[in-house]
Sequence to fold (98 residues):
Amino acid sequence: MTAPITAITPPVPVEIPAAPASTTAGGGFAGVFAQAVNAVEGLNRNASASVESFLNGDGQELHNAVMATNQAELALDLLLQVRNKVISAYQEVMKMQI
Fold:
């Protein structure tokens, strides 16, 4: 007896927030970084909901839950790398003599 084969659904595309066209004084980088953090948090919530749905047996397929989890993990890794580069650049600027 064979199980019926179901079609694999494509992953949900992620919308990356665009950088604002004009930035206000004092809110430029902070605003972009806050948007990035919110996007990563959204991906994390989506991954958690996807895993919960799979574990509850609500019809969520395993590969969708794994892809959502991997997507959230990669987004967090990217955010951490950007943060590390910004901190490194800040430290280099602070080392400069005036």
The chain has a mean pLDDT of 82.
